[in-house]
Amino acid sequence: MNNKTYLIIGGTGGIGQAMVKQLVQESAADQTDGASAKRHSTQVFATYHRSEPNFEAENLHWIPMNISDEDSIQKAADTIKQTMGHVDWVINCVGLLHTKTAQPEKALRQIETEFFLQNMQINALASLLIAKHIKPLLAKAERSAEHPAIFATISARVGSITDNQLGGWYSYRMSKAALNMGMKNLSIEWGRSLKEVCVVVMQPGTVNTQLSAPFQGNVAEGHLFSPAYSAECLLEVLSGMKAAQSGSFVDWAGESIPW
After folding, report:
1. Residue ranges per domain, the chain?
2. pTM of the full predicted structure?
3. Rounded to the nearest 5 degrees, what angle is found at the Cα of 175, between the Cα atoms of 258 and 225?
4. Residue 178 Ramachandran class (φ > 0 left, ψ -120 to 50 alpha, else beta)
5. Which of the pair, 117 or 221, is modelled with greater confidence?
6. Any coiled-coil ranges, and where (predicted)?
7. What's 5-28+41-251's CATH class?
């Protein structure tokens, strides 16, 4: 995982922040005294929405991004272009399940247009807009069939139509299913126009973050992951991905999830 340029979308969230810290720590561990040429070889770009975090590192670059605003996404991509000129891995960790005023719907009568569209905007559309503006940077990455560039998005098992046995959570389920279809489409298009890029949708497990906090009471003992553990697992799975696996929907252990 050395000598790459990473972009973590949502670097202030639970999983995103854990990924940022792990990538920075790994790159620091790989450095050797006097190896100045390698000292800056791994670069980590991470986005924040409102306020820049106080976590700093020599090879960490915080950039603002509002994933609901296409202009903001484009500006972030332009910043990376001016700084590095390419990106090797992109991981979108941003997701919406609930807000201060809205919870996942348990029944049809609870559907509200604004909350539904907000789910679609953040959970489904954002990854497509990120891909749209990041494609030129991925195109300049050094890559091969065995070591492809990566475009990964955090999804959810509840976005699987086949796996849906409980119903409910209309907006979240539908937006994640839409995300999955969008990424599948993207993998097919880039399979023709942007070779050796692996587009993958990932389920991180149930993670102890603000997103899952209201619903952790239903999680079986031992099945609530720390952000650090989930991030470690996801990065490990991605490190083994081949270009031929583009279009995959996998969990934190690398196991396939039915669409």
Report:
1. 5-28+41-251
2. 0.91
3. 65
4. alpha
5. 117
6. none
7. alpha beta
